[in-house]
């Protein structure tokens, strides 16, 4: 049986927080030895475009873990993308996660890249040796007419040169399995990693689910209602919920699990402690 990948995501520290606070997160994750850590990319024209490269450099050079750099396209022209790719190359990234990004009210679109697939094609043409990952949506992207339509568009992105997909968060594994069946039936053969986001607050889960058009299954809804006013108990329940999701995904033979650490290493560690034996058990 193949061994599923286990990867993590971190984000550059928020505005006003020094970029060095990322060391607290990375120190807290030490010893977990994920297959890679990906670093998100600030979106829009006002974000610090160098933070992702600097953190990716730290992850790969100081912590010795393969780093994947996210890169968004909507508000960048080709020159800015070239600049970012050069920075990533110098940072020693092992792959770029090519994204479209979300529309931002009041920001002027550049027009060089309308879809993530445009960015994928561009990276492949400029840096043929660079590995390119893409995002996918088990419940369909919130702007797509239907899951089938979204998967048709996903196939275009993969055919442009994506070698691995990382999924949006989802709370019901059945949604992921349905998506997987449809993607495979559509001829998408690259590995697909399941994105898991641990519950840390009832409001944030509901907000995120609404924004991403993600379903909150009854079991999770009951848990949110039960522990809404007791944050510690909710977080403990969230760790168990995420651990159960991961255990079930591994039992179903998924290609990998991508844990959104949200820069909370203690939560990430507790989940990893619960599921680590399952990953070791699939090797060989
Ligand atoms: P696309 O693949 O372009 O898809 C977006 C929409 O366009 C979909 O509805 C799709 O069906 C449609 N579409 C795609 N191609 C075509 C086509 N050829 N013709 C017609 N329609 C098409 N955002 C950030 O700002 N920074 C990050 O670091 C970041 N990291 C992320 C990591 C992951 C794993 C995920 C799942 C999302 C991340 N996002 C991030 C959010 C992402 O930018 C948004 O979800 C965005 O709305 C879509 O990006 P995409 O790359 O999936 O877009």
UniProtKB/TrEMBL annotation:
A GO biological-process term: tetrahydrofolate interconversion
Recorded catalytic activity of this chain's protein: (6S)-5-methyl-5,6,7,8-tetrahydrofolate + NAD(+) = (6R)-5,10-methylene-5,6,7,8-tetrahydrofolate + NADH + H(+)
Cofactor: FAD
Cross-referenced InterPro entries: FAD-linked_oxidoreductase-like, Mehydrof_redctse-like, MTHF_reductase_bac
Record EC number: 1.5.1.54
Domain of life from the UniProt record: Bacteria
GO CC annotations on file: cytosol
Entries under Pfam families matching the protein: MTHFR (PF02219)
UniProtKB keywords: Amino-acid biosynthesis, FAD, Flavoprotein, Methionine biosynthesis, NAD, Oxidoreductase
Keyword ATP-binding: no
UniProt-recorded Gene Ontology molecular function terms: FAD binding; methylenetetrahydrofolate reductase (NADH) activity
Protein's pathway: Amino-acid biosynthesis; L-methionine biosynthesis via de novo pathway; One-carbon metabolism; tetrahydrofolate interconversion
CDD domains, alphabetized: MTHFR (cd00537)
Family listed: Belongs to the methylenetetrahydrofolate reductase family.
Protein name: Methylenetetrahydrofolate reductase
């Amino acid at each position: 049986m193949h061994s599923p990948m286990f990867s993590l995501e971190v984000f550059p520290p928020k505005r006003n927080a020094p970029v060095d606070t990322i060391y607290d997160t990375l120190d807290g994750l030490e010893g977990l030895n994920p297959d890679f850590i990906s670093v998100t990319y600030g979106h829009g024209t006002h974000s610090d475009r160098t933070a992702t490269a600097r953190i990716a450099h730290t992850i790969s050079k100081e912590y010795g873990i393969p780093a994947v750099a996210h890169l968004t396209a909507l508000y960048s022209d080709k020159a800015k993308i070239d600049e970012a790719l050069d920075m990533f190359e110098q940072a020693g990234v092992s792959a770029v996660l090519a994204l479209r990004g979300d529309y931002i009210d009041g920001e002027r679109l550049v027009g060089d890249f309308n879809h993530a697939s445009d960015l994928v094609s561009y990276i492949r043409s400029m840096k043929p040796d660079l590995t390119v990952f893409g995002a996918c949506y088990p419940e369909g992207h919130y702007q797509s007419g239907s899951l089938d339509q979204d998967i048709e568009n996903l196939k275009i992105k993969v055919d442009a040169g994506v070698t691995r997909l990382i999924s949006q968060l989802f709370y019901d594994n059945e949604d992921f399995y349905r998506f997987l069946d449809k993607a495979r039936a559509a001829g998408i053969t690259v590995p697909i990693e399941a994105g898991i986001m641990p519950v840390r607050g009832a409001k944030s889960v509901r907000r995120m689910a609404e924004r991403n058009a993600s379903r909150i299954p009854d079991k999770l809804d009951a848990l949110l209602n039960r522990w809404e006013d007791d944050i510690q108990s909710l977080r403990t329940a969230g760790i168990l919920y995420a651990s159960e999701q991961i255990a079930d995904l591994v039992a179903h033979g998924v290609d990998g699990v991508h844990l959104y650490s949200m820069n909370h290493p203690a939560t990430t560690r507790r989940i990893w402690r619960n599921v680590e034996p399952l990953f070791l058990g699939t090797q060989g």
